[in-house]
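During the second year of the project, the team shifted from modelling isolated chains to modelling whole assemblies. The rationale, set out in the original proposal, was that interfaces cannot be judged from single-chain predictions alone. As a representative example for this report, we include one of the complexes processed in the last quarter. Its constituent sequences, exactly as entered into the pipeline, are reproduced here:
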Amino acid sequence: MATTLKKTNVVIVGAGAAGGVAALPLAQAGFDVIALEAGGWVNTRDMAPDELRYIRGWPAKLQKVNDEIPTHRPNASSPNTPRLTDHPMMNGVGGTSIHYWGQSWRLNPWDFKVVSETTRRYGASRIPSGSTVEDWPFGYDELEPYYDSVEREIGISGKAGNIKGTMDQRGNIFEGPRGRDYPMPPLRSTGFTEKMSAAARTLGWHPFPGPAAVTSQSYQGRPACVYHGYCAGGGCHVRSKSSTAVSTIPKAQATGRFKVVTEARVTTIAVDKNGRASGVNYLKDGQEYYQPADVVLLATYTYENVRTLLLSKSPAYPNGLSNNHSQVGKHYFSHNQTARVTALFPFNINTWYGTPSQGVAVDNWADDNFDHSKLDFIGGGNMWVYHERRPIAAASMSTWGRAPEWGSTWKAFIKENADRQNTAYIQKTTLPYEDNYLDLDPTVKDRLGFPVIRITAEYKDNERKLAAFMQTQMEEWYRAADAIDIQKGDIGDMTVSTHAYGGTRMGDNPETNVVDRWGFSHEVHNLGILGASVMGTSGARNPTLTVQALAWRTAEHLVKSWKTIAQNAG
Amino acid sequence: MAYEFELKKISEPPQPGFSRRDLLKRLGVMVGMAAFPPVLLQTRTRAQTAAGEAFVSLTAPEAETLRAIVARLIPADENGPGALEARADRYIDRALSGALKSQRPAYTLGLAALNAYAQSSKRVPFAKLSLVDQDAVLTDVQQNRATGFTGNSGQFFNLVRTHTIQGTFSDPFYGGNANFIGWDLIGYPGARVVVTADLQRMNVKPAASRKSAYDYGMFSKGEL
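Output from the structure prediction step:
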């Protein structure tokens, strides 16, 4: 028998990158907010610079997410691909902002208007067939003030390239106009990033330091980054990485209005007889609880947002909450970030230390920054060359067909080449398609007996052609920096991803979108949804800052429209 | 306070009975290994000493076979000491009772199969073969040509190779990478808690820190 708790104004499911941001404007406005978080508080003492610890899966081990890893099949008539053994996201206060790289990009203005801009410039026939892509319900300008707010509240380092239309070659000249510069200068350059920058300039490109959720100088009581590494997949022992656990969440707690309940495993969202969200059911220490609330904000990861809705069935929503238009799980896509390029250099590059958000970017071939008239795809990619090389990974490097994989010859090869290899990260435009979607797996269940998410998705022609095009550009960049050999990775399966989008898409039309332009359900007016699950396009860059800007905007809208959203029983 | 320490208590790892420093002293491992042939001389002495210590999870015959394998995967040679000197075998042995417990059956079956294959093809247990014959057997195992394995022999080869690399190049806390043999081999300058701009220049080869992450006293320890 569930224990019914005292009603609160807002309950947030998930105290991660999105929920941890939304809590702040709500608590500051005087609302009582409770976040239910599946993980616990993480400890800076657990953030050791120890590669093996992360290879073995810390901190994702024994986590709720590992109990609900989605299954994947390329299409409805193909068998499942092998299921992952570790979920790439994590539970914990701060969520995956604890162990992410911290690349904190704004989307490009084109990303909000893919359909209309492509049609205007190249004609409607250039929208790939089968794609369900729509323009966002608003443009970049609408989100700009929210990007600005979260860049300051979270703490982002970077260099502006476009302030109100004034270009600065030290930043990204292809970015949308910003109101002002970043609150901190970019992370420092290194010998290798300077060499790559010089090479890009010889090609006529515009290299620039990328934006990072890492402090480049002391900021709001947190120290500057120490560049010692072990940032990716781990957390920061000096609190320089701007996870929500060290930025917005403590600020929200300081208001006295925000409470985090840890180890709380949310199962379903409950509705009242009018079909409005009435609260959240969860398990903690084996006990069932019901947390009533005026407003529910669903802020888990894309897969769990969709699963929670599909599992929350009621007479008013027989196919899952907010799914009377059969749009939950639709317009799903994961970022085309595979098909990497690796270079071998004839000299040491000294990338042992540093962090993956310490690097150099080129956006000349991103989005629609170049003419696609004579190309057979739309969109583009952001090229990113970055730091850190860990010893086990270095020793496990490819031998480039130049040595066997063990023995004295191998040993001589890694002795010479361990510090001479670099792999670029290339994020590329990815579109939603009719037949790429999420639903509940018919057979695979979590430990509680609830079905896990099944991903049905594959890269289509546009993604494959774009990936090959970007690999050619990247090879050119590496060769210009004196690389002597290049390897190009496969695009692989479109399986579980750290950049998973859609499933509860945002848009004005309830026939094709789950949430409205403010992030609230078209069907359940006091249910807000936060996360990349509301995004209809990916852009060519990491989603988190956009997710956080949207979360802030949804929360601010809730503050301004409290009476309409929370008290209108219609 | 946001970054509280509420996570489940991490249990301390089982005490090995001696510190890494004592261990290194006992083994007579020296900083800055001399070149071939003194290395081989030292290697033999050390290997004999190490073999005298009890293994935690492997049986004596299993340990003998594993030690012979890791010594061929990353041999001691003109480029310095190898996996055996780094104590990769000890890393694997300990981990098979700890973090890699689930892999114990794969080692039981795989080591037995490898020895049986050596017996049937060369008439001698693997550890007693000449180095040339050991390499020939390992090549067969790697390339799925060895019979008698559960699954294919290449899977077992890759498992042992992965763990040998871990035992040679991981933080010394886990019992391998003794005296930073692995990190010195590839030039990895070691765990640090602060890295200055100078240490990220291309014309600089950072001096080795010669520190485990846990030498800094700032971090809780993981499972061995």
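Chain B touches chain A through 60 residues (CB under 8 Å). Residues 6 and 220 of chain B are 13 Å apart (CA to CA).
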